[in-house]
Amino acid sequence: MHSSYFDYNISRPYPFKWFTPVVILGGVVAVVLLSIVNLGSSGYTLAALYSHDPNATVSQRGSEYWPSLPITKPQSACQSASIPIDTRLLTNNTALTYTLTNVLQKADKANQTFLSSLVYHNNVLPDCTVDSIAVRLASLGRTAAQIAFASWGVDAQAYISCSLNTNDQSLTTFNLTAEYNFIPDTVSVYSGFYSFIGRNEREKASLYWGESLLSMFSLQLGRDMAFANLTVEGENIATEGILTFTRNGATSDFTSVKFFDVLFRFIAPLPDNTFVVWPEDVVPDIADAIPDLDFWNSSDIFAKSLYSTVLADLGQTLSPNILTDALLLEHFTANFSYMYELDDVAGPAKDAFSTRNSTGPLGIDPSVLTATYLCEVPRQKPMGNLIVSILIADLVFLQALWILFKLVVELFMKHKNKEANLCEGCLKQKALMIGPEEVGLEPTQLKRDSSSYEMIAVDKRQGLLEKDFSK
Q1: Fewer CB within 10 Å: C terminus or N terminus of the chain?
Q2: CA–CA dist 415, 240 (Å, integer)
Q3: How far apart are CA 45 and CA 181, in angstroms?
Q4: 388-426 burial, b for 16+ CB within 10 Å, e for fewer?
Q5: End-to-end Cα spacing for the chain
Q6: Could you read off the pLDDT of 435-450 as tens digits, one per residue?
Q7: pTM of the full structure
C-alpha cells in the first residue's frame, strides 16, 4: 500500500453520556454570544460627518449604535477644531460676533509660543475678561443709508482676553474682539440693523435686555453727539472721535461714571484739508474735564451695556453686571419708553425692565465658541453585508473555540485514562489480552446456555466487542 506524505487522525467517541448535549447546548450559546459580539465588531463602519457639538455626537446613543459593548462597539470620535487667527466667531448664545486676534500657549513662565490658530474642542470658556472698550464716533465717511438713520454713527469694539487649559495641561490664552454697530454700512432703507441671531426673551432674557440696551444707547449717543455740536479750537466742528474705556479698579459701583477710566480724542477738519486733534494731552477724568457735554452720560451707559453683554455672551458670571442684577437693569432702562418714541427702530424691548415683565428670568449660561468638528460615528452596514460579515466572523470564532475545546478535553482524557490515545481496534485487541476492566470496558453477561457461559465485553459508548469470553 502506498504511504502518502499527508495523514489523517484516528478518532474515538468520547466515553461520556453528557458530552453530546453539552456540546450541542454550548454550541448554540456560543453562536448566539458570538453573533452579538460580531454584530458590534463587524456589523458597523465608521462614517465621517461634520458636527457643531462633538460632545453630543460622541455620547449619542440609539438603536443604530446597538449593542453598546465597550470591547466591540466602534467608538465615535471627533477631531479638535483648528481656528485660524482672524476667524469670525459666535458663541452658542449667538449674540455678538467675535474675531480671533491672538493665540499664546504657555507651558510655563519661561516657555511661551505664539500660534497661528487656536486648537479648540468645545471647551467651556472658564475665564474671560474685558480689557478695554473702544467707541468710535463719526459723522462723515458713512453711507447715505447710515446718515439717513443717524447723523452720527457709533461703532464699538470690546477687546477680550480668555484662557483655557488644553489636553496637554498647558495654558492657552487668546484674544477676541467683539464688534457692535447697530447701523452697519450694510444697512438699507428698510432693513439691515444689527440684531442678535439667537434672540429669545424667555430662555435668554439677559441677552435680550443686553441687545435692547445696546441699540437704545447707541442711538442715544448718536443723538447726543449731534446736539453737542462739539467745536475744536474755535469754530472747527469735530467730525470724528474715539472713546476708550478701561476698568477702574478703585470702584465697583456700576452706576458711577468713575467705574471706567476714559481716554478720548476728537478731530476736526481744517480748510486746508488738514485736521486738528483735541485734546492734545491725555485727560485723566472726562467727567471733571468736560462736565457740560451731554454725550458723556450716554457713552458711559453704552460702554457698560457692551461690557455686560460681552460677559453674558461669554458665560462669565463676574460682578457687577447689568444683565444679572435686576436693580441695575431697572435703573439703566428707566427711560426706555421715552427713548423708543425718539427712535422706534431700537429694541427689541420698548419699555423699562421690571420684575413683572413677561421675559424670562435673568441669568448667564455656560458658553462655548462655535466651530465645525470632523467626527467619525458608527453606521450599521446594509442587511446583506451585515449577515455575511457576522456569518464569516462566527465561523472563524467557532472553529477556534472547537479546536481549543478539543485540545482541553483531549488533555483531560489523556490525564484520566492512559489508553485514551489508542484507536478503537487497538483497544479491543488489548482487552482480549488483559481483560476489559483494565482498558475501561465492562463485561456483561448477556446469555447463558447449558454448556457454557458466554461473556461479551461492552464498551460504554461504542457497543459490543466482537470477541467472546468463554468459561
Answers
A1: N
A2: 102
A3: 48
A4: ebbeebbeebeeeeeeeeeeeeeeebeeeeeebebeeee
A5: 40
A6: 555 555 555 432 333 3
A7: 0.74
